[in-house]
Amino acid sequence: MEALPEGERPWCAGAVVAAGTGAGPLAEGAFGWAVRYAAYDRELPPGQRVPMRADTVFDLASLTKLFTAIVAVASLERGELALDAPVASYAPECTAAADHGITVRQLLTHRSGLVPELPLYDCDGDEARWARLYAEPPGAPPGTVRRYSDLNLLLLQRVLERVTGRPLDGLVHDRITGPLAMASTRFRPPASWLPRIAATEDQRRPWGKLDRGMLRGVVHDENAYALGGVAGHAGLFSAAADLAVLCRTLLAGGGPVLSPASVDLMLTAPGLGFEVDQPWFMGELAGGGAAGHTGFTGTSLVLDRSRDRYLILLANTVHPRRRPGDSSPRAAAATALARVL
User: Fold this and answer.
1) pTM reported for the whole predicted model
2) Half-sphere exposure of 160 (CA within 13 A, CB side)
3) Any residues with CB less than 8 A from the CB of 240 and at least 6 apart, and which?
4) Does residue 4 have a pLDDT over 90?
5) What span, in angstroms and rounded, lies between the C-alpha atoms of 107 and 163?
6) Cα 299 to chain centroid, rounded
7) Is 189 within 8 Å of 197 (Cβ atoms)?
């Protein structure tokens, strides 16, 4: 095995890129390695590396939030939720949300005022983790500022589970991946998927929050891992072809997952779960109402409804070790698509 100086490590070990329109795919490519490193400071010999393929499965990280948001909007259609209802009216155990009047809309638009994250993985057991989350007060008055927070989608997960009586993974399957036949998308992928899964991080302290070694097929996010691999903010695994199905569904108006009115509600600024017109990762696709999201592991998705196109970029940028974020390759890929079409 060969040591690799930190300064020589590329932006990602490998990537899968897919672009298309509502009518179908336009281009897809797989580049580099799904598994390139044996450890944070050691490359595998070329013969032992696993090449990236079009059907490689990735840890989606925060792209999971889009699925939680879609489930929530589907619940709005069913009358199970109201956007401006207090969170505590559905999940009274959310005591801080009750004390400060946080609403469902504020969770979906990241205007609850909650901090970006909490070290729930340090708590002793799931009961203590959820209790810590429920008691966390907002750092700013709800509705006054936008502050991106994983906690919003965790609380939304609990709301959805309370109003439906179903766990989040079941809701995602029943309301999204099942109807769309997204057979390569799920929480907690089975061992049989392992040969197709891209590795993420050799997670160690001090850069990691837990000591777990090289991760492959196990969720990277520490809080999602501590919560059993199913969480509103992270935990889903998927492949580019499945995500393309979701993109084409939304570009076509949402059926059979959502109504066109619900798609408009979700993808129109300020967006519900989706980010709208963000040049830092959308490049020149931004500006016409493009909506999408990124994930910490190196994933991103952009929908440009005004020009009927989508871009999916799945990469393992944290393999073998996390480093300061850089979305310039995401923006460059989006700009390339904007100029080609």
Assistant:
1) 0.97
2) 29
3) 16, 17, 18, 28, 54, 55, 56, 312, 314
4) no
5) 16
6) 8
7) yes
pLDDT digits over 263-294, tens only? 999 999 999 999 999 999 999 999 999 999 99
pLDDT band at 323, cuts 50/70/90? Answer: confident
Task: Convert the pLDDT of each residue in 143-166 to its tens digit.
Answer: 999 999 999 999 999 999 999 999
Cα separation, 326 vs 207, in Å, equals: 17
Crossing angle between the packed helical segments 150-164 and 126-134, to the nearest 10 degrees: 110
Length of the chain: 341
Listed by start position, the domains of the chain span 2-62+174-340, 67-168
How many of the other CB atoms lie within 10 Å of CB of 108? 26
Residue entry with tokens 């903010």: 233
Each residue of 94-107: pLDDT tens digit? 999 999 999 999 99
User: Are the beta carbons of 84 and 128 closer than 8 angstroms?
Assistant: no
| Residue 104 to residue 252: CA distance in whole angstroms | 26
The SS3 of residue 208 is: coil
**Structure tokens given for 141:** 């008055």
Distance CA 306, CA 92 (A): 40
Question: Would you tell me which CATH number, out of the four given (3.40.50.150, 3.40.710.10, 3.30.70.890, 3.40.50.720), belongs to the domain 2-62+174-340?
Answer: 3.40.710.10
